Amino acid sequence: MAKIVFCEDEVRIQKLIRAMLRSTSHEVFMALDGVEGLALIERENPDLIFTDISMPNCDGFQLAEAVKAQPLLAQIPLIFVTAFAQRTEIEEGYRRGAVSYLIKPFSPADLRTKIEAFIQAAH
Amino acid sequence: MKKGTEPLYSDMKLISKDHEAANYLDSLSTLARRGFASNQEATVAILQLLMEQLTMRSSFLTHVTGEAGEFEVIAAQKEDGGCAIQVGTIVPGYQNFQRITGKFDEPAPVLLEDLRSYRELASHSTSGALSQIGSYIGAPVVLADGTFFGTLCAVDPEPRQLSLVQAKLLVVLARLLATQIERDQELAERKWAENELARAIASLQTAVEQRNRMDKMQSDFVSIVNHEFRTTLTGIQGFSELMRDEEFGFEEIKEYASDINADARRLSRMINQLLDLDQLRSGHTSLYREQIDLNAIVMDVVDRIRPATTCHSFRHQLDTSLPLIPGDHTRLTQVVTNLVENAVKYSSGGEILLVSQREGNVAHVRVHDQGAGIPLEALERVFDPYYCRIESDTTRYVKGTGLGLPIVRQIVQMHAGNAWVESNVGEGSVFHFTIPLTTTD
Questions:
Q1: How does DSSP classify residue B193?
Q2: Statement to judge: residues B30 and B169 lie in one domain
Q3: Which of B168, B189, B210 is the last residue of a domain?
Q4: Is the domain of B15 the same as that of B147?
Q5: In sequence order, what DSSP letters do the residues of A37-58 get, joined into one string?
Q6: Of B189, B219, B251, which residue sits at a domain end?
Q7: B237, part of any domain
Q8: I want to staple A49 with a disulfide (CB 3.0 to 4.6 A). Which of A78, A109, B63, B140 is the partner?
Q9: Nearest CB neighbour to A12, from listed B237, B246, B263
Q10: Is residue B204 domain-resident?
Q11: How close is the nearest chain A Cα to the Cα of B396, in Å?
């Protein structure tokens, strides 16, 4: 049972994620870009952050930087959910402080397993 | 042949004075020690030395011109009382004197001690000054590669008797001058070669940069296509797996099926666009020409796209005097569609204005949006097939495949028209295209 913030600019994928997690007891918050996402994270202090990379206004990398810059939020495990799957891009993400990656397209099981793994790690 | 083939020198009176020879050698070595900054400087010095040492009051250098064996005076020096030889004069040179004296192909100097009897011959030349010549000595100036450059000559109105040493001095000076000319030529050639090299390097660098840019655009393109395909597949794979593995109500199933379908169609459209652009660019497509009502196409496209967006308003100013134009209806619809879709996609809201105008012998259509605008350096590049990132490189926000505009330009150009954009960052963009009112074929 965790509080999770998702930053994803495609509304359909937001719907998909909610559908994938409806059988779990996690509390899910959605943001459409990095700006909304940061505000949501500061307000809710979630247990986990999932963020897309390609978003308008403030992309995933910029969001990661902003989150890691705040001591209170830097501990929150951050996972990139993205279609950018090339090695250089993945390495870049880890350099920004991500603890894991979820590559699109992903299965419901992929998402749930990822959450379970990092909720346990956080407690 | 008047004088047979004996060497010339046997006709000369040999004045063998040690001090005279020493004097010449001294003057020669002084000259040789000087560095000359230019051909001109060397020539002047040599001509002056010649006059001094040979006690002849004019000296000049000729350069062979053309096949006729004509020689042009390119430098001349004169002392008081000497013959006035003008630079630019065409003189019968070494070869002609050789003909007069009967000597051919001899590298030796030609000495004519007393020309008074030849004056009539000389007067046939183009310059009256030559008829003043009383004595003449000239030596060939031959370059190291065998090229015959011209002659180094000294003349005087009076007849002169010259010594062997003086003749040899002339030969040495001629060689010295030849060396100077060779060096100058080499310098000029080297400078030319250096320039050519620098130009070649510059153009090679440009080509390499261009190639690197293309490579980067290509890999950017692959990266973007990869991103777009994967994003579209996310919904298809995710929803279908959910439906397969979990229980859902009918309404939910219908909704998810509709989502899958929407993504599948989007994917299909992306693939079609890719193939379309490829076909258009490879020249395998031809246009089906009819008489087209461009205004009707504009209205159709707006009517079709308007319901898809809630943030935009549409306005139009269509020129009712616009005649039917020859064109491919499907393709021109594609052009207008791509431009209007871009206007919707690249502006978060505001008004989209479509204008059509007859201008001379073209139909001119404009699509105005109130989006973020396009920076100056991107204005041409937005029409490049792989140029997709309008935002700065610091953000990774990607919209579309960047193929809409290349397709627009390709189709418009196939109609013998033009497509371009005007934009200012912060003020939105205006996309233009023109189609000629008549075809030329």
A1: H
A2: yes
A3: B189
A4: yes
A5: HHHHHHHH--SEEEE-SS-SSS
A6: B189
A7: no
A8: A78
A9: B263
A10: no
A11: 5
Number of compact structural domains in chain B: 2
Query: What are residue B375's phi and psi, to 5 degrees?
Result: -65, 155
How far off is chain B from A123, nearest CA to CA, in Å? Answer: 29
* Residue B67 pLDDT grade (very low, low, confident, very high; cuts 50, 70, 90): low
| Chain B CB contacts of A23 below 8 Å | 246
- CATH number reported for the structural domain that contains residue B313 in this entry: 3.30.565.10
Looking at beta carbons, which residues of chain B come within 8 Å of A15? 259
CA gap B300, A95 in Å, rounded? 50
Residues B155 and B298 in one domain: no
Q: Does B218 touch chain A (CB under 8 A)?
A: no
Does B19 share its domain with B168?
Answer: yes
B265 part of a folded domain:
no
Q: What are phi and psi of A22, to 5 degrees?
A: -65, -25
Q: How large is the ipTM? A: 0.91
Instruction: Tally A–B CB contacts below 8 A.
Output: 77
- Token pair in block for residue B112: 């004519």
Domain that holds residue B413: 290-436
CA atoms within 13 A on the CB side of B353: 9
> B381 in a domain, yes or no?
yes
Tell me: the pLDDT tens digits for A17-69? 999 999 899 999 999 989 999 999 999 999 999 999 888 788 899 999 999 99
**Residue with structure tokens 């074929």?**
B441
Query: Which neighbouring-strand residues pair with B112?
Result: B136
Cross-chain residue pair B259–A12, CB shorter than 8 Å? yes
User: Whole-number mean pLDDT of chain A?
Assistant: 91
- Contact across the interface for B236 and A105, Cβ inside 8 Å: yes
Contacts of B229 in chain A (CB under 8 A): 83
**Closest chain A residue to B247, measured at CA:** A23
Residue B407 CA to residue B277 CA, distance in Å, equals 6
- B242–A12 C-beta distance less than 8 A: no
C-beta atoms of A107 and B263 within 8 A? no
